[in-house]
Amino acid sequence: MSFAHVLSSRGLDNSRKAVPEQHFLIFLVGHKMSLYIQMFSVHGLIRGKSPELGRDADTGGQVKYVLELARSLADNPQVDKVDLVTRFIQDKTVSANYSQKVESLAEKAELVRIQCGGRKYTRKELLWPYLDEMVDKTLKLIKAGGRVPDIFHGHYADGGYVAKELAAIFGVPFIFTGHSMGRHKKNKLLDEGMTDSEINRRYHIDHRIKIEEQVIRDSSLIVTSTTHEIEQQYSLYDNFKEGNYRVIPPGIEIDTFYPYYDAQFDATPEGEHSKQARIALQGELHRFWVNQDKPFILALCRPDQRKNISGLIKAYGHDKPLQAMANLAIFAGIRKNIAMMEENERNVLTEMLLLMDRYDLYGRLAIPKKHDFTFEVPELYRLCADSRGIFVNPALVEPFGLTLIEAASCGLPIVATRNGGPADIIANCKNGLLIDPSSSRQIAEACKKILADQETWDVFSRNGINGVRSHYSWSSHSAGYLKSLDEIKYKSRAISDKVQQPQSNPIGRRLTEVKRFFITDIDNTLIGDDKSLARLMKLLAEHRETLGWGVATGRCLNKTLQALEEHKLAIPDIIITSVGTEINYGPDLCPDKGWQQHLSYQWRPELIRHELAQLDFLGLQNLENQRRYKISYLMKDDPDLLAEVHQVLRNKNLKYNLIFSHGQFLDILPCRAGKGKAVRYLSYKWGVPLPQILVSGDSGNDECLLRGDTCGVVVGNYSRELESLKGGRRIYFSPDEYAAGIIDGFKHYGFI
């Protein structure tokens, strides 16, 4: 690939979708579909057994969604393997289950936990700086497993980012499920009176929206639960028209959410568990109610302002006839001490208690503190149906409404917000009434209409049971999901007729396949003797299947590409530039974002520039040599002056790495930066042991590259700055110069 083509291709965003789909086509043509799917739900509070739904803002219905999707896909014969990847958490404030590295979900599905951003539980809005670490560690997982996933599927914006990055690295399709979208959430919060700065302080919403724009643009498929999501949420984005959307409603476990009347025929699959759950629930509810024989109105949701729990209590509190007809039970998450909860949850729960007191609902309103989702929630729906009660979802907006189809499957009529997914559910199942959630009167009237008319209750109950089985099973969801993947395949075939097939594997596939790396400096090491350079390039080509190669230079990226073009060299697999502060991969020059995030630790460039400005013997190099993680000066070769630079920086307790080379170039880098540290990072990320990496150089800025457990080669034309390395462990001084010295080093170590 020519230098001109490389530079022009860096600006073509629209070409990014075609390549993954072409590689998907290569995989599918001539093969029976046998997929390995890797899904991402990053926040970490996910477990296969008894998921803590409603524990906090991270544990909403999407937890159940991703668990059941993983199990359902794994049960399909077209799927070989499903990994659900989340964050590893080891924290006394949460269950020890979240520190289990691998948890089986089904015969072909596993929950895999990867550590990033430390071990403590951190709410998802604060995990953005650590997502590139998750990308890197997932790469290690993939290489260790020996198979690249055929699909990466991200859930929520954070999971979408991780899946997007991995899909780009490996050249495979990327699927996204948003569950909720940041721009819609921001608009709602602004309407509720929060300021822009408050929203960003708590939710980092503008960064999330930026990522969602990229995710929409780069995804091969966007799976939504309802048309409302597309029309009311995705349509708010600049890249909306670039999205490829499919409405595939999620399902439920029919065997768990069986109808309330099954117990009358001894047909309950759960047996004693269901009976025990019912007794526990009755005991808990009867603590609150004076008249225990009335029907009850049930709400089940997280304690979140958007769920509009207060609207339901106000509707019930204002309407005395409704209070006479039914009790009210609100299960608002799991709580121990309200004072210790997050601000949003604390405010909602406090308001619930204040409204209970305001309307004097003691003896009629139950607000239990906990519930078990595996057995108690399904039995709670059936208990409510047995009482001939109703299920209410009064949310301001409900993207889908998983609890609505669970309740319907158990035979419980529903009253739900008209804003969002419930409109689709009631259109499909004809099992309830839609209301304006801002109208307390509408909520109360809808509840009374169903409770007062036995025939209406019976019709809605039967319709819900039958409708869920027709429209909302996980088997039908999986079938729709895999059919959509098949559509990507046919779309890719059309693309491949117009677009030249890539001539090599995507860089991710290549670097997970090679066994060894060769990394070299450019100036006076790789280049300097054209004949020996030609011999070296031929040698690398002969061993390409097992050997990845790269350059490590003080040059910036553009000058590095110019040097390669000048000597008619192909773009290498790895390009380490600006004295080890930047890493790019392959012909597409894909930047290593994990390395960039790694370097940001304790890096204070503005303060460094300010302090060194007082030294009149330093002169800044030209603007092109100044990089985000590199400050470059000119200085004469004088040990005393070098010591003074160190003294100034240490007096301010600044963390840095200083490189002086060629008797004039002074580079100040982050403490984690440098050619050698970049190589060690590559070793870790791509799973290539340091003894299987050969490095070569000729000058002082190669010193950290040459030190360590790699196979170091100093070419014969080296600078005197490297004299101190003579006799060092695993450092070979070749008598041959330039590329000939590298070839000699290969022979010395028996490297190829």
Task: Explain what the structure shows.
The strands form 4 sheets. The chain has an 8-stranded mixed sheet, sandwiched between helices. An 8-stranded mixed sheet has the order 19-18-17-16-15-24-25-26, sandwiched between helices. The longest helix has 23 residues, at 474-496. By secondary structure, it is α/β, with parallel strands linked by helices. The protein folds into 4 domains: 24-247, 3-Layer(aba) Sandwich (Rossmann fold); 260-468, Rossmann fold (3-Layer(aba) Sandwich); 502-601 and 673-752, Rossmann fold (3-Layer(aba) Sandwich), CATH 3.40.50; 603-671, Hypothetical Protein Ta0175, Chain: A, domain 2. Strand 12, helix 15 (402-409) and strand 13 (414-417) form a beta-alpha-beta unit. 42% of the residues lie in helices and 16% in strands. The protein has 28 helices and 26 strands.
Secondary-structure blueprint:
Elements: H1 3-9, H2 18-28, E1 35-40, H3 61-74, E2 79-87, E3 102-106, E4 109-114, H4 131-145, E5 151-155, H5 156-170, E6 174-177, H6 182-191, H7 196-203, H8 205-218, E7 221-224, H9 227-233, E8 245-247, H10 272-286, E9 296-301, H11 309-318, H12 320-325, E10 327-332, H13 343-358, E11 365-366, H14 376-386, E12 390-393, H15 402-409, E13 414-417, H16 422-429, E14 432-435, H17 440-452, H18 454-471, H19 474-496, H20 507-513, E15 516-520, H21 530-542, E16 547-552, H22 557-566, E17 574-577, E18 582-585, E19 590-591, H23 593-599, H24 605-612, E20 619-620, E21 631-634, H25 639-651, E22 657-661, E23 665-669, H26 675-686, E24 693-697, H27 703-706, E25 711-714, E26 731-733, H28 738-749
Parallel strand pairs: 1-2, 1-5, 2-4, 5-6, 6-7, 7-8, 9-10, 9-12, 10-11, 12-13, 13-14, 15-16, 15-24, 16-17, 24-25, 25-26
Antiparallel strand pairs: 3-4, 17-18, 18-19, 20-21, 21-23, 22-23
